[in-house]
Write a structure and sequence with these properties.
By secondary structure, the protein is an alpha/beta fold. 36% of the residues lie in helices and 18% in strands. It is elongated and about 90 Å long.
């Protein structure tokens, strides 16, 4: 019996990656190969080395050794790390990536635009070094509502029950009044509305309104000083979420190519419409459109159908628990977090839980038990990603913070309760072939004990639908567009991959070596042979990622014909890691 090149390549790559277990094959395949793993490895070593990270690879004797970064293929929940002074070098960014970070956040509230470009450049260098797509999220600052300044540079202490006025007078404040340079707040406020100063340390209740002032009663006393922030939990302000600074930063983000844009101060669906219009206006010609993430931090997002409408209009949601925790009662925040995550899952949009997750690790190498429990709760809730802010941006232990998150992720996802919690939420299904294919792939993978689901995708819609189902195995999303691959890095259980040629949709290069790791089918033409090439590439990608280690390991593959048609998921195929010509240890030529 002849053995197909696919089987031969699999054994060769297995050996080169560090394994020598040819006995995993059936006796017929082993006899037909008539060679040793070391001999096979020598014929394809260049190809296999090109597909592995440049860091040293640990060797094993039973199965193929996979790169250390392969640990990330064993987790489902993604990790988002904010970059800052503590993580502004190539070495630290690489360290955080290897510790588990899938996405890096650039906070445009701090630092210059040029500094953000330097960080993005280093992220792309790490991405290139490890041949793995990394997402970059640019976070817009949003409006900052603050009181004016006081004549006493140390501020004033307000007593409980006293009256205090906020007005438009530019004179320095005292113990009875201070300027509030935001007429929008004065216009939108009503009697009995609450204003929170300095993250809620001082609580004012409005007892009287005027055209240019608000008279307030101090219900929670405390110190108020220059330029302290003001929150308006009861009011929807007639104010754009995009300041002039944000508009300039957004245009800069579009120019340098961030993958996600996070919008702060979202109050209502119209705010998402506004940023989409600005992106349409300023997106350079030929540049890939970034995904939009809405930061939910205002109580108005939960009025009526606002939350559902906001999720529909954007590409992802961030549970911004900082301001949300100020403007909402503390006991409400965990429930709102669950509500947001469930809404995102039902609509197939990624949800990120952020703020104060491991706050104590800014100064300490270990978190408090309450913080570990908080991170675990977000994972149990089904969040797509969890975020670090100051812990990785300005803390003393950025690497330890990322590593701790991954440890918690691995522990929770290994708990039997985790799967039962994920399965409690029923998914709405659409009457489309693509929807049926994605749902069926997840069920087939579970029934057959497959090692992974492999989705070929252009814009990511099929991959996102598979992620929505929360399958029991990793989802390998293969796309010809690096921008799509990066955006998919935000989604639960999805690990994007790019064919080495840069596309699975152009004609085969006749100059490629016989044992090339990637072949390229034609978009236009008879798809019989081309589809076999697509399936071979699926097997190779799974092997490179360390998802398979035995030629009989099964993969569930989804794709769409004709190639190059967005959303045309209409094929599902179960095949062994040895390739499409093989089944149950037997291969055809």
């Amino acid at each position: 019996m002849k053995i197909s090149p696919a089987c031969t390549k699999f054994v060769a790559l297995l050996a080169v990656l560090g394994g020598n277990n040819v006995n995993a094959f059936s006796p017929s395949i082993t006899r037909s190969l008539n060679t040793s793993p070391s001999a096979l490895a020598s014929t394809t070593a260049d190809d296999a080395v090109a597909a592995t990270p440049t860091k040293p690879v640990e060797r094993q004797t039973s199965i193929a050794a996979v790169p250390k970064v392969a640990q990330r293929w064993r987790k489902r929940t993604k990790q988002l790390a904010t970059l800052g002074p503590a993580s502004s070098t190539f070495e630290m960014i690489e360290t955080l990536f290897l510790a588990g970070a899938d996405i890096f956040r650039l906070n445009f509230s701090h630092g210059s635009q040029e500094q953000k470009l330097e960080l993005l450049t280093m992220i792309r260098e790490v991405e290139e070094k490890y041949s793995h797509p990394i997402a970059v999220l640019g976070d817009l600052q949003g409006p900052k509502l603050r009181v004016g300044e006081f004549s006493n540079p140390n501020g004033e202490v307000l007593e409980q029950g006293q009256m205090f006025r906020l007005d438009l007078d530019e004179a320095l404040g005292d113990n009875t009044r201070v300027m509030l340079p935001h007429p929008e707040i004065i216009t939108a406020s009503e009697v009995d509305h609450v204003l929170l100063v300095d993250d809620g340390k001082v609580k004012l209740t409005i007892v009287g309104t005027g055209e240019k002032h608000l008279d307030c009663r101090v219900d929670v006393p405390g110190k108020i000083s220059n330029r302290k922030g003001v929150n308006t939990p009861d009011s929807v302000l007639d104010i754009s979420p995009l300041t002039p600074k944000d508009r300039a930063d957004l245009e800069y983000m579009l120019g340098i190519g961030v993958d996600w844009v996070a919008l702060s101060f979202v109050q209502q669906p119209a705010d998402i419409v506004e940023i989409h219009a600005l992106i349409d206006e300023h997106l350079p010609e030929g540049v890939f459109r970034p995904a939009v993430m809405a930061k939910i931090e205002k109580p108005s997002c939960f009025v009526g159908t606002n939350l559902e409408d906001i999720v529909d209009l954007c590409d992802g949601i961030m549970v911004a628990r900082g301001d949300l925790g100020v403007e909402c009662a503390p006991e409400d925040v965990p429930l709102l977090q669950k509500q947001i995550i469930d809404t995102c899952r039902r609509k197939g949009k990624p949800a990120v839980v952020a703020t104060q997750m491991l706050e104590s690790m800014i100064e300490s190498p270990t978190p408090t038990r309450a913080e570990a429990s908080d991170v675990a709760t977000a994972i149990y809730d089904g969040a797509d990603a969890i975020m670090l802010s100051a812990e990785s941006a300005a803390g003393k232990f950025p690497e330890e913070s990322v590593a701790m998150q991954q440890r918690i992720i691995n522990r929770v996802e290994g708990d039997s309760h985790y799967r039962s919690y994920l399965n409690q939420l029923s998914m709405s299904k659409k009457d489309t072939a693509a929807d049926a294919i994605a749902a069926a792939a997840c069920q087939i993978a579970q029934t057959t004990n497959a090692k992974a689901i492999v989705c070929f995708t252009l814009q990511g819609s099929t991959v996102l639908r598979a992620s929505q189902e929360r399958p029991t195995v990793p989802i390998l999303g293969i796309t010809p567009f690096k921008e799509t691959a990066r955006q998919l890095a935000m989604s639960w259980g999805v690990y994007p991959d790019l064919p080495r040629s840069g596309s699975f949709g152009f004609t085969t290069d006749e100059t490629e070596e016989e044992h090339s790791l990637v072949e390229s089918p034609a978009v236009n033409g008879e798809y019989g042979d081309d589809f076999d090439i697509v399936l071979k590439n699926a097997c190779r990608a799974a092997l490179r990622k360390g998802l398979v280690s035995d030629p009989n390991d099964l993969l569930v593959v989804t794709a769409g014909l004709p190639f190059g048609t967005p959303g045309a998921a209409n094929i599902i195929r179960v095949l062994p890691a040895a390739g499409p010509q093989c089944w149950d240890g037997h291969c055809r030529t």
